[in-house]
Amino acid sequence: MKVKIGFIGCGxxxxxxxxxxxxxxxxxxxxxxxxxxxxxxxxxxxYGGKVYTDFRRMFDETKIDACFMxxxxxxxxxxxxxxxxxxxxxxxxxxxxxxxxxxxEIAAKVKKANLITSVGYVLRYFDVVEMAKEMIAKEQVSFxxxxxxxxxxxxxxxxxxxxxxSGGQLVEQATHIVDMMRYFLGxxxxxxxxxxxxxxxxxxxxxxxxxxxxxxxxxxxxxVGNLTCTWLWTGFESGxxxxxxxVIFNYERNTLTVNNFNKKVTHxxxxxxxxxxxxxxxxxxxxxDASFIKSGYEDAVKTLAVSLKAQESMRTGKxxxx
Length: 322
Ligand SMILES: NC(=O)c1ccc[n+]([C@@H]2O[C@H](COP(=O)([O-])OP(=O)(O)OC[C@H]3O[C@@H](n4cnc5c(N)ncnc54)[C@H](O)[C@@H]3O)[C@@H](O)[C@H]2O)c1
Prior knowledge:
Elements: E1 3-8, H1 12-22, E2 27-33, H2 37-47, E3 50-52, H3 55-61, E4 66-69, H4 79-86, E5 90-92, H5 100-113, E6 117-119, H6 127-137, E7 141-149, H7 163-166, H8 169-172, H9 175-185, E8 188-196, H10 200-203, E9 212-219, E10 224-230, E11 237-244, E12 247-252, E13 255-259, E14 264-268, H11 273-287, H12 297-316, E15 320-321
Helix pairs in contact: 1-11, 5-12, 6-9, 9-12
The structure holds nicotinamide-adenine-dinucleotide.
């Protein structure tokens, strides 16, 4: 039986999901929805599906088995609730929301409905990440050091650079590294945040978010952490280092290096993590079994909470408990 998919949002990341889904058997593109009709048309021309500009109309007119939500953070306005009401499993891109209370309410409804959900924390699907998680669990680890350095997406002109639309780099992009730190070390208990501003806003007209954010994290398991992200860099660097007694795990994108001082071993993944993520979601929907999914909605809200609470700390100058 084919799993019929509907997309809400047919922009950049949706295109990557469509490309991955095309490689998975038993997937049918049933509907493409975007408020920009031309984007939905273009996606439908390449992959198939009926074209919509209104997601409610899509749900009313076309039967779908699963929904992919690939919309910007500010645009979450009832799509998840509409899926929950209709019992349609969904994969939603990170960050799941900009308002923590709304995200928590959605998480409670997802749980009550026992709905299969997946969130685009795609790094979790790298085999080297799983390898790192298993190895870290066997060590006496004490701290994690995360980084996410890049340039302002969209040439500094689009929704990314506006706080009210994206939440800023920490919420929108470095959330991947917050999530990796949680994946390796468990839940965060308290966060303290500092920020710098005043460079990018002189260059880009609508830029009104941090240039750099630095977080101090206290984990429930007693470990500590530090994450720094910046939109001042020209290239791209991101990763996490986890340090324990006599061992350093360095994870960067598809590469894990385990350093035991006198022995350093590097593992490089050749997996396409988005293909793995989408395959897991489709299998979960087809088999009605959420166990294939590595990041469900409720867990993703905990990652969102870390970055939003860090920004609260930046505003108040005080550490914030989660
Ligand atoms: N997992 C990853 O590695 C990864 C990578 C890139 C982006 N993302 C995430 O995916 C999301 C989308 O990012 P993008 O780069 O694709 O953005 P984008 O701007 O390229 O595309 C977003 C699309 O959503 C459409 N849209 C906006 N509001 C809508 C609504 N209410 N209903 C239907 N369509 C609507 C826009 O018209 C646009 O076509 C963001 O949350 C981003 O963080 C995740």
